[in-house]
Amino acid sequence: MTHTTDILIIGGGIHGASLAFHLAERGVKATVLERQFIGAGATGRSSGLVRMHYDTEVDARLAWESFQYFRNWKERVGGEAGFTRTGFLQIVAREKEAALRANVEMLQRIGIPTFVITADDVKRLAPSFVTDDFDVAAYEPESGYAMPSDTANALMTTARARGATLVQGCTVRGITLAGGRVTGVDTDQGTFSAPVLVNCTGAWANVVNQMAGVDLPLTTWRHDTMFVVRPPEIGPSHPTVIDFPKELYFRPEGDLTLVGLEDGNPLGESPDNDTDHAQKGFAERAIDRLCERVPAMEKGHLHSAHGGYDGITPDQHPVVGAMGPEGFYVDCGYSGTGF
Ligand SMILES: Cc1cc2nc3c(=O)[nH]c(=O)nc-3n(C[C@H](O)[C@H](O)[C@H](O)COP(=O)(O)OP(=O)(O)OC[C@H]3O[C@@H](n4cnc5c(N)ncnc54)[C@H](O)[C@@H]3O)c2cc1C
Description:
The protein is of the alpha/beta class. It is 26% helix and 31% strand. Helix 1 runs parallel beside helix 7. The model has no long low-confidence stretch (mean pLDDT 97).
């Protein structure tokens, strides 16, 4: 049996769900084909940092636009995104102070609430942090983190209420073309026809691009994270932090702290590798670095660790738009910052 729809979206991560939501808002009924379940890919593994401190204006503007959704989620989307305001700190090495100040000025011109604060200010915000190896940090008082699976599910739920269709457990195996145009897809649940097809398959995007004869310089990026049970000495919470000198980021979640590392993220592996466990040695490296910034974490203990895969491009910016046969669009290559 063939199902006919206006637009087919392949992949039910944050991008497929968000696209279905925004199309539904405009009265376009899309069908999302997801080989597992909503949030099964990078989205379900994402650390969910919600901050505007990006170093290009276009990324910062996009993050600021998204932030308006997070802070008014119930009115704009409905359901829960789990946004928690913790404040966000971007710590930089002494020699990067001028660049940090210039970046904060760029963000302030956009209207983003962010300031340069001193190491003493950081100590007042987070008394358990070591602050003697940097002079300044950028601070966003309104930022924090959200729950990526909840966010994607809320977007998809509202999209469905407005006419979108979700087909889970449905793997796209081929793209059908006629006269240089997309006509639909073959899946393990039959064929679906539509004049427009959007590839939102994250780390798997190359496989789907190849079905359309599209060749992009995309590869995969593995990233591991872990949760540590925070000792009571640190207090009930702490800010969300990107710590450039230590190539580390961390954020609270209840009495846990989530930790990720900016280095040691291998490229080019199969995204179907095991992600239920972190790579060997990751937890030791991450704990060492976390304890350098927050020594009291030595009294904490490991709760869990896992990994995930995203698609990455050479300049680490996504590829969004029409390419290849008429009707084929890509929305992929988010390079670890697609949430
Ligand atoms: C551990 C980790 C932490 C991260 N932390 C952050 C963060 O703090 N902030 C941030 O901004 N970004 C973060 N990222 C990056 C962010 O999570 C991703 O950029 C984003 O989730 C990508 O969303 P997506 O919808 O493009 O892809 P995905 O969420 O990977 O979704 C793609 C979907 O396509 C499906 N699929 C694949 N092939 C097919 C097929 N043939 N047919 C049907 N369906 C198919 C998959 O099952 C999957 O569900 C992190 C990534 C990882 C791995």
